[in-house]
Specification:
The structure is a single chain. With 197 residues, the chain is an alpha/beta fold. It has two domains: 49 residues, Orthogonal Bundle (Helicase, Ruva Protein, domain 3), CATH 1.10.8; 131 residues, Dna Topoisomerase Vi A Subunit, Chain: A, domain 2 (3-Layer(aba) Sandwich). The chain is 44% helix and 13% strand. It has a four-stranded parallel beta sheet. It has a two-stranded antiparallel ribbon with strand order 1-2. Helix 4 links the parallel strand 3 and strand 4. Helix 1 crosses helix 2.
């Protein structure tokens, strides 16, 4: 039987997404091999992460030192705004190097079964931002799920009175994939999201 403090460590490590009890055990045993100084640095980083890594009040992206690179008009295309549902997605999109505009995080998707709705304050903040920054194009980059689709339609409806072009990411066939392996829903989305060629 493991010592109780080791069990406690494994229990906390297994709360991380994708980390089961076996992986958590491996992590715990590895951490026990670390030098005291390394463990103290890790503990400091964990202890201060909530305080040092904050959300930008304008866009919701993660920042430190009260400076948001995602809101800097000198670095970004200030006429485009991409709506996402989490700050993790901002970094995924940034890694593609295909979007250089502003971001706006809506925090959650509409899910009637879970009792989740969009925060009216966040929608008002979004509208005010579009008008204040004179945004010309809004790109809705939400999951292709029932919740993502419902949220995208709601946002489109909320923004319809504004003088702004609204688009949504095309969903469909992954690069290098044969049509034989594509399910009907994905193929339908690929047709709906088709572009002129």
């Amino acid at each position: 039987m493991y010592p109780k403090d080791l069990l406690k460590l494994i229990s906390y490590l297994s709360k991380l997404p994708g980390v089961g009890s076996k992986t958590a055990s491996r992590f715990a045993f590895e951490l026990l091999k670390w030098k005291e100084g390394e463990l103290e640095k890790l503990a400091d980083i964990l202890k201060n992460s909530k305080k040092n890594i904050i959300e930008c009040e304008t866009c919701g992206c993660l920042i430190s030192d009260n400076y948001c690179q995602f809101c800097d008009p000198n670095l970004r295309d200030s006429k485009k705004l991409c709506i996402v549902s989490s700050f993790k997605e901002v970094f995924l999109l940034e890694n593609t190097k295909s979007f250089k505009g502003f971001y706006h995080i809506i925090e959650n998707l509409i899910s009637p079964l879970d009792g989740l709705e969009l925060d009216e304050k966040n929608i008002k903040k979004l509208k005010d931002r579009i008008e204040k920054d004179k945004i010309k194009e809004v790109i809705i980059a939400l999951d292709s799920t029932l919740e993502g689709d419902a949220t995208a339609l709601f946002i489109k409806d909320e923004l319809s009175a504004l003088d702004v072009n609204i688009s949504r990411l095309a969903f469909g066939i992954p690069m290098g994939t044969s049509l034989d392996y594509i399910d009907g829903g994905t193929l339908t989305q690929a047709f709906i999201g088709r572009q002129s060629f």
